[in-house]
Design brief:
alpha/beta; Fumarate Reductase Iron-sulfur Protein, Chain B, domain 2; FAD/NAD(P)-binding domain; 3 domains; five-stranded parallel beta sheet; about 35% helix; globular; binds flavin-adenine dinucleotide; binds iron/sulfur cluster
């Protein structure tokens, strides 16, 4: 019997999306979601659930969705997740649930993320995402940072009756969801829905508040959660990196992604030039290049990566989308200096690379050859990975962090300070939304258990 392929989803065509910050993947309709869910084999030992970091009960919600019982599907999802709309949209599915789906062995894996996203958006439309307001339980907690880890922790605590405050150093909500993940991959409405839910649950969000010392917070709140992320950009340490027009990825991405949409649905970043060079081969590089393509003044975008395409860490879907949007890829190429005129970058001198023996990551090590060439540029974006901010650990004696500045925690996300938890990128180093959410949920559940056991 021939196996059915994936149910097609409406996708914004490449020539349209080059001028648009609208969502590329439009999402399933109810009929499409049910049709796709009906492809699930309902495996008895589902490998997809095992591969999902939060072990979503995928066959169970697929069965309900295939019968168009989306309310039941949503209830099943809520046992494990508080971000089904977000994770359904941005999880690296091919490495997680969908990468382990047995349909993928001989055909196309089930579009698990897209069905999950449909169920969550359906539940939002039906008003199912708002619980009854819980009775206050007399306990209070503070979450530092307004990214996914803290958002999840705050939601679970607030749903249990805790009084929760979020302290955020920036003037906007969502952490990387807002400044990093562009609106053509994650709708701003989805982030806004979460913010509105937290506010409805009574969570106080205080912006422009950077936390360093935890002393006062530990006295004022029963529990503290650190969800401060890992957004310090790694540098190349080559000449010319300080020229005007050379940007670290967070500066470039936030300037574009946080700028308001104009009447034609475009965003603007006037400091970006006509010819944009992005350095790096991960998803952040793809996002920066795809942002650049969409700016009105851009004429050309090129990504340079020091290994070959085979070693690129970017997920296949993002890579293909970037290619479709006309971004040029030059692999086995690495800048060795940036050249400028009057203090502004004008060119990148690049080395041709070759691949040596595998390094500790298992990928073949890039080795520089003597061959050089230059690329004329007006703007460079460095997307070379992120490090953790060591300042909170440094300012709080006895708060344990590893040599990379990641907070050390036990299996319940408790740090070395009795009433302080940590999770998300601040604890793991740069990772994924679903893992940050998992940490926030687990920490909140442990706090609630301690309250019920009257330990606090
Ligand atoms: C460009 C980009 C694209 C990505 N795309 C994806 C994707 O498609 N799918 C995916 O799963 N993952 C993706 N990721 C990774 C994912 O976004 C992160 O793993 C996730 O956001 C981590 O959540 P977090 O809450 O730990 O940290 P963050 O999202 O970084 O949030 C931390 C928050 O804490 C605030 N903060 C920091 N220090 C302080 C302080 N001292 N006081 C107060 N507030 C503070 C920050 O301003 C921020 O708002 C992407 C990352 C980037 C950079
Ligand atoms: S949370 Fe992410 S990994 Fe888990 S089922 Fe949903 S899309 Fe897949």
């Amino acid at each position: 019997m021939e196996r059915k392929g994936r149910t097609k989803m409406t996708i914004l065509p490449a020539d349209v999306r080059k001028n648009s910050f609208d969502l590329v993947m439009k999402g399933y309709t109810a009929d499409e979601a049910a049709e796709e869910a009906s492809r699930c084999f309902n495996c008895r030992s589902p490998r997809c659930s095992a591969a999902c970091p939060i072990h979503n009960e995928i066959p169970a919600f697929m069965k309900a969705a295939s019968q168009k019982d989306f309310g039941e599907a949503y209830r099943i999802l809520c046992r494990n997740t508080v971000f089904p709309a977000i994770c359904g949209t941005v999880c690296p599915h091919e490495d997680q649930c969908e990468g382990s789906c047995i349909s993928g062995i001989k055909g196309e894996p089930l579009a698990i993320g897209s069905v999950e996203r449909f169920i969550a958006e359906w539940a939002q439309e039906q008003g199912l995402t708002k619980p009854e307001k819980p009775e206050p339980n007399g306990k209070c907690a503070v979450c530092v940072g307004a990214g996914p880890a803290s958002m999840a922790c705050a939601e679970v605590l607030a749903r249990s009756g805790w009084a929760v405050t979020i302290l955020e150093k920036e003037d906007y909500f969502g952490g990387v969801l807002s400044w990093g993940i562009p609106s053509y991959r994650l709708a701003r409405r989805t982030i806004q829905d979460k913010k509105e839910l937290l506010e409805y649950l009574g969570v106080q969000i205080q912006y422009n508040t950077a936390v360093t010392s935890l002393e006062e917070l530990r006295k004022s709140y029963d529990m503290v959660f650190l969800g401060t992320g890992a957004s310090i950009s790694n540098a190349m340490r080559i000449p010319g990196e300080d020229l005007e027009g050379v940007f670290a990825a967070p500066d470039y991405l936030s300037a574009v992604n946080l700028s308001p949409l104009d009447a034609e649905g475009r965003r603007h970043f006037d400091a970006s030039g006509k010819r944009v060079l992005v350095v790096g081969g991960g998803n952040v590089a793809m996002d920066a290049a795809r942002d650049a393509v969409r700016l009105p003044q851009t004429e050309k975008v090129c990504i340079v990566y020091r290994r070959s395409e085979q070693e690129m860490p970017a997920c296949e879907a993002e890579l293909n989308d970037a290619k479709e949007e006309g971004i040029e890829f030059r692999t086995l190429v690495n800048p060795v200096r940036f050249i400028g005129e009057n203090g502004h970058v004008t060119a990148a001198e690049c080395a041709v690379m070759t691949l040596g023996e595998p390094d500790s990551s298992g990928r073949r090590r890039p080795v520089q050859t003597d061959e050089r060439f230059t690329i004329d540029v007006d703007t460079v974006v460095l997307a070379l990975g992120f490090s953790n901010d060591p300042s909170i650990a440094a300012a709080n004696e006895g708060l344990d962090a590893d040599k990379w500045g990641c907070f050390k925690v036990d299996e319940n996300y408790r740090t070395s300070y009795d009433n302080v938890y940590a999770g998300g990128d601040a604890q793991t180093g740069a990772s994924t939304v679903v893992k940050a959410m998992k940490a926030g949920i687990a920490a909140a559940r442990d706090m609630e258990q301690r309250r019920l056991r009257e330990e606090i």
